[in-house]
Design a protein that fits this description.
There is one protein chain. By secondary structure, the protein is mostly helical. Helices cover 75% and strands 2% of the residues. The chain is built from 14 helices and two strands. A two-stranded antiparallel ribbon has the order 1-2. Strand 1 and strand 2 form a beta hairpin. Helix 2 packs across helix 7 and helix 11 packs antiparallel against helix 12.
Length: 292
């Protein structure tokens, strides 16, 4: 029994900590967008590109973190990454190579939008921004961290596939999906900011949980999901002549995601965040699959 448990734990750690799971979450958001916009693309250029881009960027982040953070301050996640850093390096190279080989399959308008987003994503981890006389990473400039992540994730997983397949980007359906994605990503980011309060305080960052406290941050997350569901009601009861399946999926996603995030504030488990909070990115896609 212990042998099976140990093997299961090792497999779970490889899936979660090698960045494969978060990359799958990114691809699932693209598939969700395509389903909501009526695009039947499956495993296509955009989802493949986004999967490997996430694998590359999170791999770079993990490698830089290993070198920047001393052994005594490394959490369980980083200790695992240190142990298997060669494997992470190979996966990061694979991700970068696949991005380089697939990016030119984008249409020209989608390519033009992807390039600056990719640049921002890379600069996010590099100290190239001069702020108050010190060179900092984008992620080190207070509330801007959550703004950058929300904008980049929402744009890449909604607007890129919309442009790729010829949707009118300022069309009301695309805007609705984009606003729902912003609310979702912003809420997930706030959850991670609540987890990292101690580290962010030590680094001198002014995140929303640090500025306003845990209870007010949870209220912000609550209203984000209320907004998420409100937009879903407009989307699936107005623009698409009342489609109960996606509306029900959005309701379950909002409710369950909120409960998972609230639970994360009291559950002390290293697997919870990478499995259940990152798993929120896949949730609505899976629910939409059940409706097919």
């Amino acid at each position: 029994m212990n042998f099976i448990r140990d093997i299961s734990t090792k497999i779970l750690e490889w899936i979660l900590y090698s960045n494969i799971f978060i990359a799958l979450g990114a691809a699932a958001l693209v598939w969700e967008t395509e389903m909501l916009l009526g695009i039947s693309a499956g495993i296509d250029t955009v989802s493949t590109l986004v999967f490997f881009a996430a694998l590359f960027l999170y791999g770079v982040h993990r490698i830089l973190s290993i070198r920047r953070i001393p052994d005594r301050n490394r959490n369980h996640h980083l200790r695992w990454a240190k142990k298997y850093q060669f494997a992470i390096f190979i996966l990061t190279l694979l991700g970068g190579g696949m991005v380089a080989s697939s990016i030119f399959n984008l249409t020209f308008p989608a390519f033009l939008l992807f390039i600056p987003l990719g640049a921002v994503s890379i600069l996010y981890e590099l100290p190239v921004i001069r702020h108050q006389g010190i060179y900092k990473r984008l992620r080190d400039i207070g509330i801007l961290k959550i703004v950058w992540i929300t904008i980049v994730w929402s744009t890449i997983t909604v607007l890129i596939p919309a442009i790729q397949y010829g949707e009118i980007v300022n069309g009301i359906e695309v805007i609705s999906v984009f606003l729902m994605r912003v609310a979702l990503i912003f809420s997930v980011c706030l959850s991670f900011d609540m987890r990292d309060v101690r580290y962010d305080e030590e680094a001198g960052l002014k995140t929303i949980p640090i500025l306003y406290g845990r209870s007010k941050t949870i209220k912000i997350i609550f209203w984000c999901f209320v907004f998420y569901f409100f937009i879903a009601v407009l989307q699936f009861s107005t623009f698409q002549n009342f489609d109960i399946g996606p509306l029900a999926a959005a309701a379950v996603t909002a409710l369950l995601s909120y409960r998972l995030i609230v639970a994360a504030t009291i559950i002390d488990d290293w697997y919870y965040y990478p499995l259940f909070i990152d798993g929120i990115l896949i949730l609505n896609f899976l629910l939409l699959q059940l409706d097919k």
